[in-house]
Amino acid sequence: MKSGFVVLAGRSNVGKSTLLNALIGSKITIVTPKPQTTRVPIRGILHDDRGQIVFVDTPGVFLGRNDALSRRLNKSVRDTLEGIDAIVYVVDPTRQPGPEEEMIQKLLRAADKPVFLAINKTDLTKQSDRNLDAYKRIDIGQKATLSISSVKHTNLNKLVDALFEVLPEGEKYYPELQITDLGHQQWIEELIREKVFLALEKELPYTVKVTVEDVKFRKNGGRFIEATVWTTHDRYKRMIIGAGASMIKKIGMAARKELEAALDTAVHLELEVKVDAKWPDKFNYV
Ligand SMILES: Nc1nc2c(ncn2[C@@H]2O[C@H](COP(=O)(O)OP(=O)(O)OP(=O)(O)O)[C@@H](O)[C@H]2O)c(=O)[nH]1
Ligand SMILES: [Mg+2]
After folding, report:
1. Residue where a domain stops, chosen among 135, 166, 197
2. Which CATH number is 12's domain given?
3. Could you give the CA distance from residue 18 to residue 104 in angstroms, rounded to a whole number?
4. Is 149 near ligand 1, meaning CB less than 6 Å away?
5. Residue 211: closest CA among 185, 236, 232, 250
6. The dihedral of CA 187, 6, 77, 136: what is its sign?
């Protein structure tokens, strides 16, 4: 039996979370077209005849902002690289390599673990043609370079095969039926945060965190969920609520729809928007 921890690392927005979900075959971690979507390392567990791989989705390295939250997100990537067995370094050929790639490559070299370079989004041939060679030239002593598409599931089997080759023999870390370490409450918080990211423009999503205050199970099987959308300023609060509460209603509706589909039951979701200017300074990813 093989078992081990594999970290998915890379710049923001390259598709690490999409890859994690595709590898596990279930939506475990949230995905949006905006950078810094993932805020805490989230585990997805792949079970197979050969053993078990614990994949760790990490926040993307992002140098576009130098605030407390960004610094912690970047630090969390460094921390997850400790005590692991292998790394999948995910790159996105639809964008040119930038300073973030250099920073990540430095971290990966220092981690001194087996690395696989996964060139993602290869389904977007038109957009990626121009940069593909630059990514193929990357040499950080990787075991192999694979062209993949997380959306089309291209070559993901090859990636898993290659990972099993390098993982150590060992006992399972998680029971057979467990596919994530994310708790129910945190899952709901993340799902609402995804809808916030998708609905809000510009810097607004980065001022937001979500907490679930209460989940009640109703007699008929339905759920009553109370959650708070936190932001850092009163004027952001007004924008998140929107004219006639249109924005928060839109966010709530999208979140409720997905919660109902996933839980297969009626959901009553109450969202309140509150201000805590200090939350990004207090933010902790562990
Ligand atoms: N066409 C295509 N789009 C992809 C693929 N993988 C990811 N995407 C898209 O890329 C965007 C970013 O995906 P995420 O999975 O959130 O990226 P991430 O690396 O986890 O981003 P952070 O959490 O911000 O670091 C989303 O719009 C995805 O739908 C792929 O293989 N093909
Ligand atoms: Mg992510």
Report:
1. 166
2. 3.40.50.300
3. 19
4. yes
5. 185
6. negative
CA of 151 from ligand 1 middle (Å) equals: 9
- Of all protein residues, the one whose alpha carbon is nearest to atom 1 of ligand 1 is 121
Q: What is the pLDDT of residue 55?
A: 98
Domain with 207 in it = 184-282
Pocket test for ligand 1, best of 8, 12, 31 (most atoms within 8 A of CB): 31
Q: What is the pLDDT of residue 286?
A: 66
188 in the same domain as 162: no
Q: List phi, psi (to 5°) of 60.
A: -75, 145
Q: Is 273 exposed, middle or buried (0-12, 13-18, 19+ CB in 10 A)?
A: buried
If the chain, 286 residues long, is cut into consecutive pieces of 10 residues, what is the mean pLDDT of each piece?
A: 97 97 97 96 97 97 90 91 96 95 94 96 93 96 98 98 97 95 96 98 94 93 96 98 98 98 96 97 82
Number of the ligand 1 atom closest to the C-alpha atom of 120: 31
35-80 tens-digit pLDDT = 999 999 999 999 999 999 999 999 999 998 889 999 999 999 999 9
Hey, what are 252's tokens? 């709530």
Q: How buried is residue 93: exposed, middle or buried, by Cβ count under 10 Å (0-12/13-18/19+)?
A: buried
Give me the number of domains the chain comprises.
2
Q: What is the CATH number of the domain that holds 205?
A: 3.30.300.20
